[in-house]
Design a protein that fits this description.
Layout (H helix, E strand, L loop, with lengths): L3 H20 L3 E6 L7 H16 L3 E6 L2 H10 L6 E2 L2 E2 L3 H26 L4 E4 L1 H4 E9 L6 E13 L1 H9 L3 E4 L2 E3 L5 E4 L1 H12 L3 E6 L4 E2 L8 E2 L1 E3 L3 H6 L7 H13 L4 E6 L5 H7 L6 E4 L1
Parallel strand pairs: 1-2, 1-11, 2-8, 5-8, 7-10, 11-15, 14-16
Antiparallel strand pairs: 3-4, 6-7, 9-10, 12-13, 15-16
Helix pairs in contact: 3-4, 7-9
Length: 293
């Protein structure tokens, strides 16, 4: 029948209805990065999802990465990108480049798209203003001795009052993953870890990671081996069994800390799927891995 396609659309909306009702006025933090940042279509899909959430009564916060754009900019300045245990070594020249790319290039474009194409009240929020950090080191994998990372820190405090001020005005904060210490020195911070601390201190209902991995897989070579639900108590054993490794380790460790601090659920979703955030939150099955208490 000619109305079948319209009825199918109505069915989709009705499937989303109980979730919209359930999560109305809830804070949801969306963090995205990786190769997703290289595709304007995927970025726009994520931003459209955030605009939809806001229009349906939810309160989204966005934290974005910028790794590959930063690496490209560093090479143009003849600064070779360097990573130690998955963390970017950041010297004085590099932090200036990171600051410029995150604020003037990436964040500005995200805010502009939400405002101009989605009619959504997005606002740029610099992590330098709302995040306080302390300098960190990382252990040498062989000796355990601390290795210097330059201007790299971990977030220890979030200005939740400022974020609440934006949310109460129905604005969508788009946060850059930079921070300052108590002396005002700028530090690069891991965006995943920063998102977890923000989520914990804001007591968000859901924390959604959108990246270029399809959640947690039992077998990294088999995309059909997706684990749909992980309990925090399982994470340590999964690490010992080798199911969790590499860049997934800090994600899940931070996710566990966030949940223990009061975050409702953490979702890890393949951001290369268009509208993955909506599919994960507003449908019965979801498309990624959820980490639960």
């Amino acid at each position: 029948m000619e109305f079948d396609s319209f009825i199918a659309k109505a069915d989709v909306l009705l499937e989303a209805l109980p979730y919209i009702q359930q999560f109305r006025n809830s804070i949801v933090l969306i963090k995205f990065g990786g190769s997703v940042m290289e595709s304007p279509k995927l970025i726009h899909s994520i931003l459209q999802d955030a605009a939809f959430m806001a229009a349906s009564g939810m309160k989204p916060i966005i934290v974005h990465g910028g790794g590959k754009a930063i690496s490209t900019a560093l090479k143009k300045e003849n600064i070779e990108p360097k990573f130690i245990n998955g963390l970017r070594y950041t010297n004085k020249n590099a932090i200036d480049v990171v600051d410029h790319v995150l604020h003037q290039e990436i964040n500005a474009k995200l805010v502009h798209y939400l405002r101009e194409k989605c009619s959504a009240p997005a606002v740029a929020v610099s992590g330098k203003n709302i995040l306080r950090c302390e300098k960190i080191t990382t252990p040498d994998t062989e000796t355990g001795a601390p290795l210097d990372l330059g201007f790299v820190g971990k977030v220890i405090n979030v200005d939740t009052a400022q974020l609440d001020w934006y949310l109460n005005r129905n604005q969508i904060p788009i946060v850059t993953p930079l921070s300052c210490d108590m002396d005002g020195q700028i530090f690069n911070v891991n965006a995943d870890m920063a998102a977890c601390v923000i989520a914990a201190q804001m007591q968000v209902r859901k924390l959604v990671f959108l990246s270029d991995v399809a959640g947690v897989l039992k077998n990294i070579e088999d995309p059909t081996s997706l684990i749909s639900t992980i309990h925090c108590s399982q994470i340590e054993q999964m690490q010992k069994d080798g199911i969790i490794s590499g860049g997934m380790l800090p994600k899940l460790a931070s996710a566990r800390e966030a949940i223990l601090a009061g975050v409702g659920k953490v979702h890890m979703v393949n951001g290369r799927i268009r509208h993955a955030a909506l599919l994960e939150i507003f449908t019965d099955k979801g498309v990624g891995t959820q980490i639960v208490p």
